[in-house]
Amino acid sequence: xxxxxxFKAKEIPVDDAKKIIGNIELNWKHxxxxxxxxxxxxxxxxxxxxxDDKEVKILSIKFNN
Length: 65
Fold this sequence. Notes:
This protein has 65 residues and is of the alpha+beta class.
């Protein structure tokens, strides 16, 4: 497994990122818990979040290659 120091994240254009996130948001509510868990296990390597009093904000996401 690659060490964190050697990991080079691919930068994607902001518009592409907005489309990806928008699609996930649109479809997320239609998935049951098992489907959500499967999606996260298959595609997401790491999620960095920040939680304040009102909401949880996603700071970064690393997807599996």
